[in-house]
Amino acid sequence: MILYYTRSQKTKIFAEALHDILDLPLYELKSELDTMKNFKFLYRALASVFTSKECAVSNIPSSLPNEIYLCAPIWGGRLAAPAQYFLKHSDLSGKKANILVTAETPIEKYKTRALEYLSQLNCVAGDAYIFATSKGLPEKDIIIEHMHELMRTS
């Protein structure tokens, strides 16, 4: 299963590209932040980064397969708060969790931090990938090509 959280719709395109490659079910996580206006959203998103305040996900699946891929953006150098909430409040016991993060600047430490976060949970930490987003929406065909290359080398 591929789960994703997105506000800007950029991460959704990466999740859809991964879906096209792996042919796994796609599931969008919804947060209390999704309905907030931009200024209030920005305030809550930054508060979650600097204070570790949780941002609840309203639709965590009741059961998960043995392997998941979580796609989420980086906020302030950390995994987006709704993605952290999902990982913290899901039953991942013995399940393999892979993570794909998106960021405007794809700094390797973001991927490392995401893996470190997974290692603190009761799951099997799988692979981690980081992809750069641009100002506009990325082109899915280019993403798929890049994902194929990346997955062959990991």
Chart the SSEs and their pairings.
Elements: E1 2-4, H1 10-22, E2 26-28, H2 38-51, E3 67-75, E4 78-79, H3 81-89, E5 96-103, H4 108-119, E6 124-132, H5 140-153
Parallel strand pairs: 1-2, 1-3, 3-5, 5-6
Antiparallel strand pairs: 3-4
Give an overview of the whole structure.
The model has no long low-confidence stretch (mean pLDDT 86). The longest helix has 14 residues, at 38-51. Strands 1, 2, 3, 4, 5 and 6 form a six-stranded mixed β-sheet that branches. The protein contains five helices and six strands. The protein has helices at residues 10-22, 38-51, 81-89, 108-119, 140-153; strands at 2-4, 26-28, 67-75, 78-79, 96-103, 124-132. It is globular, with a radius of gyration of 14 Å. With 154 residues, the chain is α/β, with parallel strands linked by helices.
Key features?
alpha/beta; 154 residues
Q: TL;DR of this structure?
A:
By secondary structure, the chain is of the alpha/beta class. The protein is built from five helices and six strands; from the N terminus they run βαβαββαβαβα. Helices cover 40% and strands 22% of the residues.
